[in-house]
Amino acid sequence: MTDGQQHPAQQPTGATPGWTPPPAGGSWHPSGGTATATVPPPLVPPVPPAPRRTGRLRLGVAGLLAGALIGGGAGAGVVALTADGGGAAPTAATAQSVVVKDPETATAVTAAAATAAPSVVTVYVTGGSGSGSGSGVVLSADGYVLTNNHVVTLDGSTDGATIQVRTSDGTLYDATVVGTDPTSDLAVVKLQGADGLTPATFADSDDVQVGDLAVAIGAPLGLSDTVTDGIISATNRAVATGSTRDDATVIDALQTDAAINPGNSGGALVNAAGEVVGINTAIASVASGAPGQDTQSGNIGVGFAIPSNTAQRIAQEIVATGSATHAVLGVQAQTAAGDTGSEVGTGAQIVRVDPGGAAADAGLQAGDVVTAVGDRAVTTSTELTAAVRDAAPGDRVTLTVQRDGRTTTVEVTLGSSGS
């Protein structure tokens, strides 16, 4: 990426330490606790075979767009609900409400779902290249809805796309794109003629703890108002989505084991009170490493959501201006490793400092290795990107920096860049 924001530097195939391009259609989990992602073929009947992969166990992160991206493919939300690959492929399930039938036996998940489900919608997108479906979260009574950028763009462009949104009561609305933000993978659409919708309540994602109840609500495989539960597995998880360096989107994610699948993208991850703590955006997938075996698709208990504080800030900016801003450090960086060829990251090494940027103003230099942002450890360039993007433009952060064998701290006032 060469957008002027803090991000890992581009490297040729085989350049280490740092990032190695994945095989065609694949990805893996590099060192330092970060997850790299690709967007695999969406799930449609029949599911096309995944590219053959070889080598050791690999972790990738799949985008959550359900539908067909090839012209003439199956319509949005059409899924094959069979165990053996045979049988009919029914259309997407109609919307249904989450109702508490017996308060005495209702669980915390029941209560959370009943509170949040009226604020979660199903988003259908049809374009010249195909169609797909995802989920969304209601922002306002008059029809502003937050979803993922990759949902409204069909992982491409909004040009010529037709968007419809079905609310939890089954009403279908036409919608238009208000604005998109590829950097955070968020977008806002506006429902035409909507009134009296139930806006979601957003929680403070900084208060989320590992082990908290997590309830995912959305339309996996087009099945509207699907509710699954689990816990928050990790916070501040640096996750990069995209098959190449140039199309990577880095998010500072909440990780959950609540089941999320293609079609959940853009939907809500809520806490026990039914408050939105994150916007579901990606899931991990595993390639077995055995020749001829395909990548596992669907939920494996490792999902990722954009934290609510980030999502709400970006959404408000898009509604107000049609675009969003992001905190910028003003460097290019690569993962530093202790030993040549080691896959264990020890920090983010600055390769280039943008003249006149935040890093330059703070005195950072090429060759410096950033090992922490505030009290948050940094072991890879992706983690540095995620930590910076977790902040807002103008925030003042403290970087722990190694230079010439010595460790020091540097105060940086982050710059601003549009998406």
UniProtKB/TrEMBL annotation:
GO terms for molecular function: serine-type endopeptidase activity. GO terms for biological process: proteolysis. The keyword Protease applies. Pfam families: PDZ_2, Trypsin_2. Residues 318-405 form the PDZ domain. SUPFAM superfamilies: PDZ domain-like (SSF50156), Trypsin-like serine proteases (SSF50494). Keywords: Hydrolase, Protease. Residues 39-51 have a biased composition (Pro residues). CDD domains: cpPDZ_Deg_HtrA-like. It comes from the Bacteria. PANTHER family: PEPTIDASE S12, PROTEASE DO-LIKE 8, CHLOROPLASTIC. This is Putative serine protease PepD.
